[in-house]
């Protein structure tokens, strides 16, 4: 039995942030990892996927600028892209992550962790031995998620790719079929279409369902321009591999789709099935419900709350940056509770994850890029907010046209008429990801529209789109910032 202050299960970016903040608060911390320190994001998700996407995106950006376009005389070096990906994932070695933990004074146990009762964790090592950890103050579950494989006849036996295989493949297949229409599906479709693969996307409904509808529509058009086939409302009957090792996907009411590989990107499931949750009265395999300080609801408390769930596993916002944000809040509140300090758990307090409800930013690195934060127009209206929706074309910002010819795209603000603040923003177009943080600040800071008029965008930059949005909303007056009007889209 080894006794420490805090045990963190999962050494991805989320768990690392919890451990780092708890350690900075003076606590003795051990982190447990069964695979690689750095987790899914570093080796099979965010880092490799964006690296695979970047080269072709840079090439397309150059081709949109006369002068630069004429200088681009060769084709994309796909092998070089994969080599660069390998460098960014350190050839799937976590030596650097292990060194960081040592430098931070955070202990590392390698093996499979399971809860074994109140503040107890058993770690089964690769050699079959077990170490027992006892936490004085907290156990944190930061195990993330796995790809969910739908119950489709023949799919499991067809050796499907998940996001892991798509981001770690050593080469691009000649033909790639993708089942799904979410972020993983459209980003990997964009990446492999950029490599020259024959890509077919099979989506049950539209693309990017959590965003404004025009985002998914623009991405569908963009994928088709890259040569991909995009099928909406696709109903699949079965999947198999034939005697030539080809994947054959039977589509109801349509022709079969034949490919070399099939990527399943239909959602995620929590890594909680084999964590010993039953020893503390929780259901294995379930998402873990938490309060805003990331304490797990329904776990036996003992003298005080002790079990936390941070990152994807709590199903609040399945994004690395939101998980890291939660991790910082959790590490700080664990340290505060351990020493009996005041816990600031009011909305927007230092010990809570309020932004998970109000201001979750996300960028989809497709063609075009889609960036959003806060509420969509539909979500705001469903929440009972009285809103006005403002749309302007990307080309209305002169900086966008200078940045690249044919600056097609769209920007939207969702404005709360009662509070006179921005509560949602969406940007769709080439190279727009860096616009997102300004919108995030406006929403988190609840910046009044009247004050935003004084945030002058530099000319000639793409950020001038903010001025066009405000002009479409209406000039402020001494009596009222936002002119009265019905909720709905404004041209």
UniProtKB/TrEMBL annotation:
Pfam families listed in its UniProt record: Pyr_redox_2 (PF07992), Pyr_redox_dim (PF02852)
Disulfide bonds: 41-46
Residues annotated as transmembrane: none
Record GO terms (molecular function): flavin adenine dinucleotide binding; NAD(P)H dehydrogenase (quinone) activity
Keywords: FAD, Flavoprotein, NAD, Nucleotide-binding
Keyword Nucleotide-binding: yes
Binding site for FAD: 50, 312
Ranges where the Pyridine nucleotide-disulphide oxidoreductase dimerisation domain occurs: 360-466
Similarity remark: Belongs to the class-I pyridine nucleotide-disulfide oxidoreductase family.
The protein, known as: NAD(P)/FAD-dependent oxidoreductase
Organism from which the protein derives: Agromyces intestinalis
């Amino acid at each position: 039995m080894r006794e420490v202050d805090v045990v963190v299960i999962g050494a991805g970016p989320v768990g690392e942030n919890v451990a780092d903040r708890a350690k900075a608060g003076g606590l003795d911390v051990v982190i447990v990892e069964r695979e690689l320190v750095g987790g899914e994001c570093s080796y099979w998700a965010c880092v490799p996927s964006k690296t695979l996407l970047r080269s072709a995106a840079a090439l397309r950006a150059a081709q949109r600028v006369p002068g630069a376009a004429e200088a681009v005389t060769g084709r994309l070096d796909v092998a070089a892209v994969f080599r660069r990906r390998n460098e960014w994932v350190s050839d799937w070695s976590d030596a650097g992550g292990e060194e960081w933990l040592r430098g931070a004074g955070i202990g590392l146990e390698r093996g499979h962790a399971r809860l074994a009762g109140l503040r107890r964790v058993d770690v089964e090592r690769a050699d079959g031995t077990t170490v027992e950890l006892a936490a004085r103050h907290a156990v944190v579950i930061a195990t993330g998620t796995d790809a969910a494989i739908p119950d489709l006849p023949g799919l499991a036996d067809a050796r499907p790719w998940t996001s892991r295989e798509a981001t770690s493949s050593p080469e691009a297949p000649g033909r790639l079929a993708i089942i799904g229409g979410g972020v993983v599906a459209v980003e990997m479709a964009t990446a492999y279409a950029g490599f020259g693969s024959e890509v077919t996307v099979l989506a049950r409904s539209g693309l990017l369902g959590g965003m404004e509808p025009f985002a998914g529509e623009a991405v569908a058009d963009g994928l088709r321009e890259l040569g991909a086939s995009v099928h909406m409302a696709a109903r699949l009957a079965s999947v198999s591999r034939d005697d030539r090792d080809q994947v054959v996907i039977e589509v109801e009411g349509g022709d079969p789709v034949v490919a070399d590989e099939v990527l399943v990107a239909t959602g995620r499931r929590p890594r909680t099935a084999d964590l010993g949750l039953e020893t503390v009265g929780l259901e294995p395999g379930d998402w873990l419900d938490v309060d805003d300080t990331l304490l797990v609801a329904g776990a036996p408390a003992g003298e005080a709350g002790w079990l936390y769930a941070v990152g994807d596993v709590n199903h609040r916002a399945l994004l690395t940056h939101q998980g890291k944000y939660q991790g910082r809040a959790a590490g700080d509140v664990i340290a505060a509770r351990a020493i009996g300090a005041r816990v600031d758990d009011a909305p927007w307090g230092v010990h809570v994850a309020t932004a998970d409800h109000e201001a979750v930013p996300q960028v989809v690195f497709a063609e075009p890029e889609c960036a959003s934060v806060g509420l969509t127009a539909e979500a705001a209206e469903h929440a009972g907010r009285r809103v006005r929706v403002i749309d302007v074309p990307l080309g209305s910002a002169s900086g966008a046209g200078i940045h690249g010819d044919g600056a097609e795209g769209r920007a939207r603000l969702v404005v709360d008429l009662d509070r006179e603040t921005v509560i949602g923003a969406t940007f769709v177009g080439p190279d727009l990801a860096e616009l997102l943080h300004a919108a995030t600040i406006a929403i988190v800071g609840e910046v009044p529209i009247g004050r935003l008029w004084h945030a002058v965008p530099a000319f000639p930059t793409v950020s001038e789109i903010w001025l066009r949005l405000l002009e479409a909303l209406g000039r402020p007056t001494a009596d009222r910032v936002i002119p009265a009007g019905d909720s709905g889209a404004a041209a």
